[in-house]
Write a structure and sequence with these properties.
Blueprint lengths: L2 H10 L21 E10 L4 H12 L9 E4 L5 E10 L2 H12 L4 E4 L1
Antiparallel strand pairs: 1-3, 1-4, 2-3
Helix pairs in contact: 2-3
């Protein structure tokens, strides 16, 4: 973000951080605990959904796989998987995002 834009943000909203990088690690925009949707895009292949569910259950033992939403890409090469977890902390979400991105079939986690 350009310096001028940052200054405008600070002038217009002095209580808001200027960028995500400047948000202190102790602060969060998410209230905890809360249900939090995560979108995972991966290569459509047998085992992708099960692998995602297994990773999620490591971080949310009460994860309900029945609420998983699947959306194949137009070409069928990729599969969008939306899961909803009970987020209990920023650290939990950061670790979950990291674990999901490490799986070889996963391409993007939002």
């Amino acid at each position: 973000m350009h310096v001028i834009a940052k200054e405008c943000l600070a002038l217009n909203h002095p209580s808001l951080p200027m960028s995500r990088e400047e948000l202190p690690r102790t602060e969060s925009l998410i209230p905890y605990p809360s249900l939090f949707p995560i979108k995972v895009m991966g290569i459509q292949q047998d085992g992708l959904v099960e692998a995602i569910a297994a990773i999620v259950q490591e971080f949310d033992p009460d994860f309900d796989a029945a609420r998983t939403e699947l959306r194949p890409s137009r070409t069928g090469k990729y599969l969008g998987v939306t899961i909803t977890v009970m987020a209990t902390s920023r650290e939990q979400l950061d670790a979950l995002y990291h674990a999901l991105t490490q799986h070889p079939l996963v391409k993007v986690v939002l």
